[in-house]
Hints:
Order of helices and strands: HHEEHEEEHHHEHEHEHEEHHEE
Number of domains: 3
Number of helices: 11
Shape: rod-shaped
Structural class: alpha+beta
Bound molecules: adenosine-5'-triphosphate, magnesium ion
Amino acid sequence: MKTIRMRILMSYGLLIASTVLIIEILLCLGVRHYYYAQLEAMLEQQANVAAGIFANYLYDGSLRQRSTELIYNIPFISSQIQVLDEKGKVVEDSAGLTLGRNEKSPDAVEALAGQPGRYTGPAEYTNDRIMAISRPILAGASVRGAVRVISSLAPTEQTLFRIYLLFIGTGAALLAAVLAASILLSRTITAPLAEVTAAAETMARGQLSVRARKRYEDEVGRLADTLNHMAEEISRHDRLKNEFISSISHELRTPLTSIKGWAITLQTDPLDEENETHEGLHIIETETDRLSGLVEELLDFSRLSAHRVSLSRAPFLLGRLLSNVVRLMAPRAGRLGILLELEMDEDTGNVEMVADQGRLRQVLINLLDNALKFTDRGGVITIGAHCKGEGVCMSVHDTGRGIAPEELLHVTEKFYKGVDAGVKGGSGLGLAISEELVRLHGGRLEIESILQAGTTVNVYLPLKEEGA
Ligand SMILES: Nc1ncnc2c1ncn2[C@@H]1O[C@H](COP(=O)(O)OP(=O)(O)OP(=O)(O)O)[C@@H](O)[C@H]1O
Ligand SMILES: [Mg+2]
């Protein structure tokens, strides 16, 4: 695997190394050129002066005679100096090395031809490389010989070598510093990443209690946050799922126990007493109804929470919906001795809604079912609607036993049932489903209640929903 760290190191390393290399080469070439140019300028100056002096003194005597005398009297010439006659023979040499030789170096040849000459390269008589500058000695227009000023390049090259070493050392130190910095940088990136990865792997193995450590407020830090959030959500869903399963099991067990109990009783002495048999069968029937109702609600609820319920919206009159529901529930209210009233002005009744009428009916029936369940004989239930802002508010009010404030927060949770609600045979899904259905319509469900005085459930629905 080509790690991020390697990639950072490679790219930084290559970039810096090539930059340093190019700069070093340019610097070395520059310095070398500078030193050579300095030396050349100095030698040229000396050669010019010497050639001038020789030319001036030549009118009275031969080159050979005058040269010895002159060569040691040119005070400022520090380099080796040769005097050549017109044939190129060395007639004088301040170093005494080449006396009598025929000088064939290119600079000498040039000078004897009347042109200034310059040569850099190995000398025949030493191992060093030299720089030689030659100037013709002129008497009028004729060349009488040449002056050659020679310097060994060894000291210059030694100096240059030391400078090169300095450059290379500095370059290497720079490169090492940059590499060290990029190693540190890549660590600050890869170490947190490795930690987050390790945490993610642990989470993947099912240990959702681990948390990724957040080192910096950067992209990796955000990744850690997201991962932790994900783990929390998964744990929460896990918990919910378990609670859900245990509540369902509980809900299923109660009716099943009583069905089984009666089945056993009826089996052992079926013909014992007519009345008892009848009661047993009746209980089995109601418990079975309750079970199938529960399964129905559960299916509905699971579809709702998986967002698999799509509303089939169609236009209808608000008044129609409400009077329909009242007509449906009136017989039961009558049986229980509870007064069921519809309260709605004509304008509201004529409001045309575009919504899923069947689902809203389900909501209202749920609310009325609760009101009927938790209101005593002689109570009053009012169902009504009025326009409110951009929408409508439908409400179901009862004069029943009310909900305690601490319970109020929980009544819309799934499977939540009040203490004595179990006796009334509910599963605790009614309000949860209703709230979800209202939410799907883009509205909200609010419950107000005073203990022992009554409960009002308000359902706000927008008339024009965005995107609908
Ligand atoms: N109108 C009301 N008056 C008093 N308490 C209520 C009223 N409506 C709801 N509650 C309380 O809220 C709880 C939850 O109501 P919900 O409708 O969700 O469940 P349920 O009626 O018990 O069962 P289900 O509706 O599934 O048959 C009820 O058990 C009850 O304690
Ligand atoms: Mg209910």
